[in-house]
Amino acid sequence: MANQDFLPINGTDHIEFYVGNAKQSALYYQYAFGFELFAYAGPETGVRDRASYVLKQNKITLVLTTSLQPDSEISEHVQKHGDGVKVLALWVDDATKSFQETILRGAEPAHEPKILKDEFGEVVVSSIKTYGETFHTFVERKNYKGPFLPGYKPRTSMFKTEPIGLKYVDHCVGNVELGKMNHWVEFYEKVMGFSLLVTFDDKDISTEYSALMSKVVSNGNGYIKFPINEPAQGKKKSQIEEYLDFYKGAGVQHIAIATDDIIHTVGELRRRGVEFLYVPETYYDDVMERVGSINESLEELKKLNILIDRDEEGYLLQIFTKPVQDRPTVFFEIIERNGARSFGKGNFKALFESIEREQALRGNL
Predict the structure, then answer these.
(1) Is the pLDDT of residue 6 over 50?
(2) The Cα angle at residue 303 between residues 225 and 317, in degrees rounded to 5
(3) Which among 24, 150, 227, 356 is least surrounded, fewest beta carbons within 10 Å?
(4) What is the pLDDT of residue 356?
(5) What is the C-alpha separation between 251 and 17, in angstroms, rounded?
(6) Mean pLDDT for all residues in the chain
(7) Residue 158 CA to chain centroid, in angstroms?
(8) pLDDT confidence of 209, banded at 50, 70, 90?
(9) For the domain bounded by 166-362, which CATH number is listed?
(10) Residues 102 and 110 sit within 8 Å (Cβ to Cβ)
(11) Class assignment of domain 2-154?
């Protein structure tokens, strides 16, 4: 365990998206996903170049940031990638030490440690680079009592938001270029002290047309899990290649969010207009033979098109949204774990075929 102690992580602090229109995106996540607006930074708070809306539901914090200038780093990011994840922020006890230890082990610095202060105390933040143009920001907030970070002011939703039972970030998946998966797995092992949790190859994740490779890395306490995907050889273009084509490089593919009641959560998301990948009804014909007994009604799961899988420790229920912006890039997974600690390997083929149907409709298969 000693090699993991240099970077203790308490959990995901926040996930920051750079988007074309943060005001409108914030409304989407409040209405459709039940997040509550609780902090804001922008011209009204003395920030001249950007506007950021901070949304929360249980332990999940999303930051939606847009540029107020056409020639900024944020605008360039949106121009190139479309709406996408810029920062996967990690909550640590010591942001300076986290920065120094990871730099020592080969991380590329993005932002040196700095202290942010306001009337609520101080926060120390530092950032390193990971795949694509994504950053990991270390956030140390033990001396802070404010709503989010210094420079942000409290702000509440303009309508009564209705949470849908989203609990915490289960895992965040990165798509990287062909041949780069092992490079980034080694980065997490060497630079951040993560360990390899599981490997999927093209025999595990493939259809007649396309395939991908995936390795999952996890930190010491298991709070942070990052699957890393790369394309594998296939007859046609894989979903990873489609992502890389439209995102213009490596980046965060999806964010998996945990719920304790997936039937309620997905029922609400569907009612509010969120679109999901479709798996044919034949999927359910033999699913019970594969997964054994579960607590939920199969009819309910079938009606909502929720997938089921089992490992040695229990079962899980999962479903994937379609991309949440017009480019076929970032999407969300909703997952309910009943003991299972795996990632739904038994569903990969059905999901892949479902994604391929969508790709074909877009003319990208």
Answers:
(1) yes
(2) 20
(3) 24
(4) 83
(5) 11
(6) 94
(7) 26
(8) confident
(9) 3.10.180.10
(10) no
(11) alpha beta
